[in-house]
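I trust your eye. Have a critical look at both lines of this record:
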Amino acid sequence: MDIGAEQLQTGLNMASKVKLSPTQLPRLYNILPPICEQLEIKEPEFYLEMNPAPNAYAFGDTQTAITITSALVDMMSEEELIGVVAHECGHIACRHMLYHTLAQIIANASGMFETLAKLAVPIHYALMYWQRKSELSCDRAAAYIVGPKATASMLARLAGGPKSITSELNLEELAEQADLYDAFCKNGLWNKTLQTYAVMDQDHPFTSVRVREMLKWVESEDYQNMVKNNPVCPHCHKAIDASWKFCQHCGHKL
């Protein structure tokens, strides 16, 4: 049911953020079209928001938009930023936004109405669980577009900070932390209970888990077939022919 959430957010985006376009900060805007072409989605509106917190988010099911923050742009390399935008486009391609919006509406309404809050609790936690799983799907979209190394480093930035601090980060060791975390959770009912409580209200999985699950997926036959059947240029990330020696879009050697 349309209750105006998309129209509300569309107006706020237009009024308070910088809308990126071919003539408005084109270096940032030009990240988006090749990704949309690869994922076969209609191009969403693309916004830059001044915010000291590194973040990106997609909104809307019919009026779609992606927002990236100024802190995120400062923190990420160009390839990592492409991975972030590909992740958000993955939400749009998978039609996740309807349920993300529903989760937000329930959360907001529950805060206003005590009776509704009690009824909405199980629905809220079910949606949070589903949303965490949806983030893993979109990490796969990022890995498909920009490759597993850039996707893992993008996720690592969100865990450890900017490249000036984390440039020598061991990504495999970061992924291994997820195995240590699983073992920790299994070491006693109390540990498992505490960690279940810690994650149940999170809309994203913990970072080490995301890195591990993404790296596991790129070893799968599904990923190998996708890359083989739909190759992309590692420089401009546009579709290429496997017979090309040079990318006919950007000119880089393949």
About this structure: Strands lie at 18-19, 45-49, 56-59, 65-69.
